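>> received
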Amino acid sequence: MTKRLICIFAVLLLACSPALAVFRGVLSISQPTTITLTNASGNPGPASATIFILCRGLTVETLTAQIGTLAQFQVNLPKSTTRVIVELDVPNGTTTGVVTLQVTQADGTSFQDQVTQDARFVYDVQ
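>> returned
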C-alpha cells in the first residue's frame, strides 16, 4: 500500500511540475541500460538520484552515493517504456564538489552530465 501511495504521489508531482528538465537524448528499448551516480570527494554529504521509468505503470528507483563513491542501477527497460526521468539531489554547501550522472547502454550510447546543483534529465525511449 505504501509503495502504491508513493507511486501515485510521484505521478501527481510529475504531472503538476513545470517542465524544468533537460532533454538529453534517446535510449534504445532493446539495450540494457546502466545509470551511474558519482559523488565527488569534495561534497559535504551524500548525493541521490530518483529514477522514474514511465511505461504502462510507473517504476521508481533510487540511488544514493556517499562522499567519494558511486552507485549504479542496471535495468532492461520494459517494452512499454516511453521515457526515463532522472532527478539529482546534490549536497548543498560547496561549489567545488560535483555530482556526475552517466547513462550508458550496451550498444555504446552514453550520456554524461556533471552538476553542482539539483537537476532533472529526461530521456525518450524508442
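>> The chain has a mean pLDDT of 87.
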